[in-house]
């Protein structure tokens, strides 16, 4: 839990507003529907506290090891009917992790605003000046 919470908080703090939760290692739970829903409930609670809207998040049960629900729907989880999310742009749905990735909306690029860059350090170089 700790690392997942930390990543969610860090992502939100850095301005990430779209999230996909891939519930991996479903093969180790014998593709348990109960365990998947338990994880969705727990994860929804803490991403909501961080600032994300759980209704705008796709929750996808996968097995990276076996490739289940990564690119194509799997027969190993017949109970899984797919994910659905609702954003400002509207509703979208799918079954696989690839579908969820494809449903991510490209962020707007503020090209009409001045360029800003973070500074790491200031150097004083003799004969050149401060850079």
From TrEMBL:
Coiled coil (UniProt feature) = none
- Pfam hit, one: GTP_EFTU
Molecular function GO labels: GTP binding; GTPase activity; translation elongation factor activity
Signal peptide extent? 1-22
Which controlled-vocabulary keywords does the entry list? Elongation factor, GTP-binding, Nucleotide-binding, Protein biosynthesis, Signal
Q: Could you list the residue ranges that cross the membrane?
A: none
Q: Where is the Tr-type G domain?
A: 2-106
Classification via InterPro entries: P-loop_NTPase (IPR027417), T_Tr_GTP-bd_dom (IPR000795), TRAFAC_GTPase_members (IPR050100)
Query: Does the keyword Transit peptide belong to this entry?
Result: no
**PANTHER family membership:** TRANSLATION FACTOR
The name this protein goes by in its record: Elongation factor 1 alpha
The species is Tilletia laevis
